[in-house]
Design brief:
Blueprint: E1 2-6, H1 10-20, E2 27-31, H2 34-43, E3 48-52, H3 60-69, E4 77-82, H4 87-96, E5 100-103, H5 111-117
Parallel strand pairs: 1-2, 1-3, 3-4, 4-5
């Protein structure tokens, strides 16, 4: 499974990288910004994209919009990661094209299991 993980916080990216590096069936790529993610989305295919919602522009919502306009990612599973727990925020993300919302904080060591089961 080819995964793109996008978060502007280096500590979070590092924890996810450590958690996923031992997984033989997950090939993870990491982006530190929305701009970096958009560049990767235009040139690479991914099975799953995990996007932090709150980043400096372009934020996760903008990356989601761009991904859904790209033919190669029209059907890619996109999981938005957010600390917002309001049902309205989750509904808005789903209406924008997200497949799922993963609420922060989540346990990095459980991420591989989550990806396989969802």
């Amino acid at each position: 499974m080819k995964v793109l993980f996008v978060d502007d916080e280096a500590d979070i990216r590092e924890m996810i990288e450590i958690a996923l590096m031992i997984e033989d069936d997950i090939d993870a790529t990491y982006a530190a910004s929305g701009a970096e993610a958009i560049a990767l989305l235009k040139t690479e295919d991914f099975d799953v994209i995990l996007l932090d919602v709150m980043m400096v522009p372009p934020d996760g919502q903008e990356v989601l919009r761009v991904a859904r306009t790209l033919e190669r990612h029209k059907n890619t599973k996109i999981i938005m990661c957010t600390a917002k727990t309001l049902k309205e925020a989750e509904t808005e993300l789903m209406e924008m094209g997200a497949d799922q919302v993963l609420h922060k904080p989540f346990k990095p060591v459980k991420l591989a299991e989550y990806l396989r089961n969802n």
